[in-house]
Amino acid sequence: MSQSRLRLDKYLADMGLGTRSEVKGMIRSGRILVNGQRARSADIKIDPDEDEVMCDQMPVTYVHYEYYMLNKPAGVISATEDRHEKTVVDLIDAKQRKDLFPVGRLDKDTEGLLLITNDGQLAHQLLAPKKHVAKVYYAKVAGTVTEEDADIFANGVVIDETLTALPAKLDILSVTDKECSPVSEIKIEIYEGKFHQVKRMLEAVGKKVIYLKRLSMGPLCLDETLACGQYRKLSEDEIQMLKSSVGEK
Ligand code: URA
């Protein structure tokens, strides 16, 4: 099915060939062909499914949406751009679109699954509080996490006077006692995404998260073959699965 038409300068700028004024310069200097003809103006309308656009003899194919799964490393911030710090979007060097953003935030020191896309509607649905999209984390925690803590989490742990967490599922994977300073490994499934949610939940039962990694978001699971800092495109199945999990077609 034919997508809606868009101006040639927007087409080229969306595909990262330059700013709107830079691509206008490229059009003026004759570097852009549309269906084999030199483009004479920036405002001609392009049908991305039908028209063939070339820049310096190289085809420029239009991509509406991109979806990447990143295994976020620690030390990188969940933002689109920053003057001082490296962002998760900076890591996606294969991106074609320049309007990618992370779906939600992981703390700078958190690792694991982060979806990066320019599909605002899907992002909005996945982050909508009323959708209660499940997020699963693996954590190492200083202290002994107990079945009592799991019960408290199952009933909704009180974080402070203003915030009680939604009921969450806590699995204790192991507790090792290293010279009187125990470390617990846990898996925790939460259905909301407040600021420092997991760290604050553990703090509320007197424990400190020392390592945190997100394993899944809704039906999307981190591809464990991705090393920290690596990414890949989502498969069509993964995109469809995510969309249908939030009631999108
Ligand atoms: N909870 C946290 O405390 N930090 C994160 O990065 C994600 C969930």
Q: What report would you give on this structure?
A:
By secondary structure, this protein is an alpha+beta fold. 20% of the residues lie in helices and 31% in strands. It has helices at 8-14, 20-28, 120-127, 147-155, 197-204, 236-245; strands at residues 6-7, 32-34, 37-38, 45-46, 53-55, 58-59, 67-72, 101-102, 111-117, 135-142, 158-160, 163-164, 169-178, 181-190, 208-217, 220-221, 231-233. The strands form four sheets. Strands 7, 8, 9, 10, 13, 14, 15, 16 and 17 form a nine-stranded mixed β-sheet that branches. A four-stranded antiparallel β-sheet has the order 3-2-5-6, with no helix packed on it. A two-stranded antiparallel ribbon has the order 1-4. β11 and β12 (163-164) form a beta hairpin. α1 crosses α2 (20-28). The radius of gyration is 23 Å and the shape is elongated. The mean pLDDT is 95. Bound molecules: uracil. Uracil binds at residues 106-107, 110, 196-199, 212. Uracil (URA) binds at residues 106-107, 110, 196-199, 212.
